[in-house]
Design brief:
single chain, 2 domains, Aspartate Aminotransferase, domain 1, Aspartate Aminotransferase, domain 2, 4-stranded antiparallel sheet, 13 strands, binds pyridoxal-5'-phosphate
């Protein structure tokens, strides 16, 4: 053990160990069913694993090109055209990243300067605000409106100032399970029209969307796409969160600014996995089946939970379901989540951690990207609470 005695700056005052690590640690300690952290409980397709092996054996083990390998970028361009009617240039507008998180961090670092304001909707995925603050920006927090976690666009319009540099969106939304609709897109167009505001659109759950809702990617709308940095993750799409491979799409000038930072941030991304993903992407059925696959999970979990005192909130997308525990307890959610893990052996995430100033609510987030036996087992325990 080495004891460091010097002083260190605290670049993120108030930030501790993420709640995901805390709750997963507690779940392990207590032998609880872990529905806290958002990772799929399903294996990666054997075909994709075989491809990764093969690409390593074929010798793709040295640095990939800075923007990512061209065949993978080309498959992504094809997919964007096929799904969203969007034209992204393979060479200048698509960059492979080390997962969605690195894309988000690098994007914010590339375009946010000291004093810039960034609009963030809460509850918000936890990596956005730290990246904004480390870049010297200021997060302007808006609460999504209950019960369906919608955006109050009038309030947003009133908050726009000459310093507003970015609006950060996430649809399908983690943790709220909400998705952007046509009216949101119209409002976004009108709020940003005639401004220099950029949009950072986190679309990592593009395929985890239910009940026939279409994913309204920023890429579908040229007036929004010209100001958008769009983030995707192969981890979410191919049940491979541990691979940490994703991508960022943006117009050429924004991509150039992004790559300037990216080259000193990660330089390049895992090469054999890029080769494997490029080949695997030739078959679109792998992602086309995802909405039905996850809808079955959501419906199964909701049906197993019937008869419990936990009340579900609507879930239109993402693999998270929120449940209100007001009928059981009035304790703060951080306390209640710990107690539930210790006493009833089911780990969840308290929703207040996704806010700067949490509103008064009693909500827990459960990840239903698990096999049905796990979901049934968790629901049986929760029904006893
Ligand atoms: C909304 C959201 N954005 C980004 C990420 C990060 O994606 P990746 O694992 O590819 O870094 C996650 C992961 O949970 C997420 O839920």
């Amino acid at each position: 053990m080495y004891e460091f005695k010097g002083s260190l700056p605290d670049k993120l005052p108030g930030a501790g160990t993420t709640i995901f690590a805390v709750m997963s640690g507690l779940a392990n300690e207590c032998g609880a069913i872990n529905l806290s952290q958002g990772f799929p409980g399903f294996p990666v397709a054997p075909e994709l694993i075989d491809l990764a092996h093969r690409k390593m054996r074929e010798g793709f083990n040295q640095y990939a090109p800075l923007p990512g390998i061209r065949p993978l970028r080309a498959r992504i361009a094809d997919k964007m055209k096929r799904l969203y009617g969007a034209d992204y240039d393979v060479d200048t507008e698509i960059t492979i990243t080390a997962g969605g998180t690195q894309a988000i961090y690098t994007a914010i670092t590339a375009v946010i300067e000291s004093g810039d304001e960034v609009i963030v909707f809460e509850p918000a995925y936890d990596c956005y605000v730290p990246a904004v603050e480390l870049a010297g920006g200021k997060a302007i927090h808006f609460h999504l409106q209950e019960p369906d976690f919608s955006i109050d666009w009038d309030a947003v319009r009133k908050a726009i100032t000459s310093r507003t540099r970015m609006i950060l969106l996430n649809s399908p939304q983690n943790p709220a399970g909400s998705v952007l609709g046509k009216a949101d897109i119209d409002a976004l167009k009108s709020v940003t029209e005639g401004t220099d505001i950029l949009i950072l659109s986190d679309e990592v759950y593009e395929h985890v969307i239910f009940d026939g809702h279409e994913h309204l990617s920023m890429a579908r709308y040229p007036e929004l796409a010209i100001r958008s940095l769009i983030v995707f993750s192969f981890g979410k799409t191919y049940h491979a969160t541990g691979w940490k491979v994703g991508y960022l799409l943006a117009p050429a000038a924004i991509t150039a600014a992004f790559r300037k930072i990216h080259q000193f941030n990660v330089f390049v991304v895992n090469h054999p996995l890029q080769q494997a993903l490029a080949e695997y992407m030739n078959d679109p059925s792998h992602y086309e089946e995802l909405p039905a696959f996850y809808q079955e999970k959501r419906d199964a979990f909701l049906s197993y939970m019937e008869g419990s005192r936990f009340v579900p909130r609507p879930c239109k997308g993402s693999y998270f379901a929120l449940f209100d525990y007001s009928a059981i307890s009035d304790e703060p959610d951080t306390e209640f989540a710990r107690q539930l893990t210790r006493e009833h052996k089911v780990a969840s995430i308290p929703v207040s951690v996704f806010y700067k100033n949490p509103p008064r609510q009693n909500l827990l987030r459960f990840c239903f990207a698990k096999d049905n036996d796990t979901l049934r087992g968790a629901a049986e325990r929760l029904k006893k609470v």
